[in-house]
Write a structure and sequence with these properties.
8-stranded mixed beta sheet; alpha/beta; D-Amino Acid Oxidase, Chain A, domain 2; binds flavin-adenine dinucleotide; 2 domains; globular
């Protein structure tokens, strides 16, 4: 079914009885050309691009829970392309271009809102670093505006400029950055993949791999054995556990990251704003809630909820930056499992097992990557070659020393 104004009118006048389920609920087949493990944003977009761009239709996405129940449905929805390092620069630039056309591509409203992302600087050193970052973004063809303190004040006058522990020195604005509706992204890709014949199989946990002579043959699942010509892992926070079933030890640790939302208030925050002196970022949802997050809890965990010290830390950062938020009540908090790599950048690569591919290490930046990661992973699985926009996300870069440390914090997963 093609979604359109006419469909809405027709269904509105006929009791909304004409809408069809957005995807089928098929039984798993005995085998597939390609099996993708993980029905999050990345697994679904990979299946979509494998079918759409590469014409491979005999595909299953195996999801142990329900589609979109992982990090894709738990994140703070920030989309931007203002990274610094080679590798990340071209990747996120490409991803933002795919976002800009995603609603037309999927015929699905993913509610992309290019409301602008403002990163704040609180001292001269940070301000200089932002000039460097902004120039790199401009050189890659993305937008960046370096703003002095008074320009920032005009844009977001409610921030604490003067009477603050960390007074604001300036900021870097990317006008094309913003937010998107996270669930809709998963649902849109699921629908697009299903329409092209991909089997989306929920409640199907992968519990092991069948590997013969160093080559993948299939996966053991909670719904029986499924044969596969190729298998792709896109399991975010479970990456190291799933890879271990294939005998692989990866440079990835799992950590919990929390997010928070307040009760709905009238529109107050037009942009996405991130604090420079701590890990804190905030935007306002279409329903009016202030959505914000901070740093990972800082210890290894597979839990999907966090602890109070980080709640306090994030609330402190919020109050430091914009004391007005103290008046609103926090409604909910939740957590997701982050696949933290050693340098804070992801891996899209083959593994030492023939036919087994890896897409992981997305840390807390993988939502904005959803279109480009799926397209790059599909390209790799279909052609055996790296996509032009994702040539540097190699699994062996920790051996060769070609790390992509955008934060500059060193090889410590709990620090970036
Ligand atoms: C609180 C929070 C805030 C974030 N904020 C942002 C942000 O603002 N911007 C941004 O760019 N990124 C953000 N992220 C990161 C982003 O959400 C993730 O990097 C991205 O969603 C990961 O890719 P995914 O969507 O495929 O993961 P997921 O949705 O987690 O998908 C992985 C799927 O694999 C399934 N799975 C795991 N093991 C198995 C198995 N054995 N068998 C079958 N299925 C399995 C899981 O159930 C899950 O559904 C945030 C994350 C969190 C938790």
């Amino acid at each position: 079914m093609h979604y359109s104004v006419l469909q809405i009118l027709k269904n509105g006048l006929t009791g909304n009885k004409g809408w069809k389920p957005v995807w089928r609920n098929p039984e798993p087949k005995k085998s597939y050309d390609v099996v993708i493990i993980g029905g999050g944003g990345h697994g679904l977009s990979t299946a979509y691009y494998l079918a759409k761009t590469h014409g491979i239709r005999n595909i299953a996405v195996l999801e142990k829970g329900y589609l979109g129940g992982g990090n894709v449905g738990r994140n703070t929805t920030i989309v931007r392309a203002n990274y610094l390092q080679d590798g990340n620069l071209e990747f996120y630039s490409h991803s933002l271009k795919l976002w800009e056309n995603l609603e037309q591509e999927l015929n699905y409203n993913v509610m992309l809102s290019q409301r602008g992302c403002l990163m704040l600087a609180h001292n001269d050193g940070q301000y200089d670093a932002m000039a460097w970052r902004g120039n790199s973004n401009l050189a890659t063809g993305d937008d960046a505006v370096l703003m002095g303190r008074e320009d920032v004040r005009k844009l977001v006058p409610f921030l604490n400029f003067d009477d603050a522990r960390f007074p604001i020195r300036g900021g870097l604005l990317q006008r094309t950055g913003g937010t998107a509706r996270h669930d809709a992204v998963a649902w849109g890709y699921a629908r697009g993949a299903d329409m092209r014949g991909v089997d989306l199989i929920q409640n199907c946990e992968v519990k092991g791999f069948r590997i013969e002579g160093g080559k993948i043959k299939g996966v053991e699942t909670s719904r029986g054995y499924i044969g596969a010509g190729k298998v792709g892992m896109s399991v975010a926070g479970r990456t190291s556990q799933v890879a271990e079933m294939a005998g692989l030890r990866l440079p990835i640790e799992s950590h919990v990251l929390q997010a928070f939302v307040t009760e709905a208030v009238k529109p107050v925050i037009d942009n996405v704003i991130s604090f420079g002196m701590g890990h804190f970022y905030i935007s306002q949802s279409d329903k009016g809630g202030l959505v914000f997050g901070g740093d990972i809890d800082g210890y290894n965990s597979y839990s999907q909820r966090g602890n109070l010290p980080m709640v306090e830390h994030v609330a402190e950062a919020a109050m430091t930056l914009m004391p007005m938020v103290g008046k609103s009540r926090m409604l909910r908090s939740w957590g997701g499992i982050m696949d933290m790599s050693m340098d804070g950048s992801p891996i899209i690569d083959k593994t030492p097992v023939a036919g087994l591919y890896l897409n992981g290490g997305w840390c807390y930046g993988g939502f904005k990557a959803t279109p480009a990661a799926g397209a790059a992973f599909a390209h790799l699985m279909a052609t055996g070659k790296k996509a032009d926009w994702a040539t540097k996300y190699n699994l062996n870069r920790f051996e060769t020393g070609h790390v992509i440390d955008d934060e500059g914090t060193g090889a410590r997963p709990n620090l970036h």
